[in-house]
Write a structure and sequence with these properties.
With 205 residues, this protein is of the alpha/beta class. The protein is built from four helices and five strands. The protein has a single domain (45-204), classed as Rossmann fold, CATH 3.40.50. The longest helix has 20 residues, at 2-21. It starts with a helix and ends in a 16-residue tail after the last strand.
Length: 205
């Protein structure tokens, strides 16, 4: 009798397991997983926005001017550190994204133009980075507004395409909302996101 009950319970348990095994633990509509293990086919846009103001020529260690006379020749400038970092990034990830380069003052004539957009090869961007020459002020706010509105946003081609602006700077923005005539020293007024004599960007005019 005991064996009969045990056998019956075993059969019932087996039947129950068989019944439950017919149903998936996860609903079928949730079993379709999408795994992304590589860079999307649409490359994202990355705008390198580099501070090329005069202070970037100072020492990256103590912020003082670098010269042979004062013994600071072994100190890398802030710009040298930025160039080295950008060189490594472009060398390692150059083929993964679309790149563009803008500086605050275009002192080294390194900027990619609005017409070039993000079509300049990473190898060319790396060459242009090397030619950046720190000089003049820090009009970060106005330059950011301009490059986003005239270069970044117009070059978004797909809904899934993301755009990033990577700013490398050593200080607070200035000269963004006042226009100065460098020849007379006269304040031409502001706020204004345009360019006066103290602005470059001739290819925008």
């Amino acid at each position: 009798m005991i064996y009969s009950i045990a056998s019956a319970l075993a059969l019932m348990n087996g039947a129950a397991n068989a019944a439950t095994s017919e149903f998936a633990k996860v609903p079928l509509y949730l079993q379709n997983e999408t795994k992304i293990d590589k860079q999307p086919e649409v490359k994202h846009n990355i705008m390198l926005f580099i501070d090329d103001s005069g202070s970037m020529a100072r020492s990256s260690i103590n912020g003082k001017r670098i010269s042979v006379e004062n013994g600071n020749i072994s100190h890398a400038s802030r710009m040298a550190v930025a160039k080295d970092a950008l060189s490594q990034v472009l060398s390692k990830h150059g083929g993964e994204f679309n790149w563009a380069l803008q500086t605050l003052n275009n002192s080294g004539r390194a900027d990619t133009t609005d017409r070039e957009g993000f079509a300049v090869p990473a190898t060319e961007i790396a060459k242009r980075v090397k030619s950046i020459n720190p000089d003049r002020g820090t009009p970060t706010t106005s330059r950011y507004f301009e490059l986003v509105s005239r270069i970044v946003m117009p070059n978004v081609k797909y809904r899934c395409q993301k755009s990033y602006v990577v700013l490398m700077s050593d200080g607070d923005a200035n000269l963004s909302c006042n226009l100065w005539d460098r020849r007379s020293g006269e304040n031409l007024g502001g706020p204004d996101f345009g360019y006066g004599y103290d602005r470059y960007s001739k290819y925008y005019n």
